[in-house]
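Question (not urgent): is this output format expected?
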Amino acid sequence: MTVSREAVFAPALRELLRDPAKASAENESGSHDDVVEHVFTLLSLVLDREPMQIASRALHSEDRGLVGTALEYLETVLPEDLRRALWKRLQ
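Got this back:
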């Protein structure tokens, strides 16, 4: 069984757009790291797993070159609305 990109991108976008304060009030995980990690896990279902794992780790790096490379990769594989929501979460 294959899963369509849209079937994964939609819930990933919902996770990124969810209000962290509201999630905390509902006793759900809403921290930046938890949400971004969950989104990367979702995205790995339909995008190449290894590059997604590398990008996820690179975003936590202090090496600006690695971070830049990860952002460039994500810019090429994510739809614009999902990418904008992720950028907002990362800032």
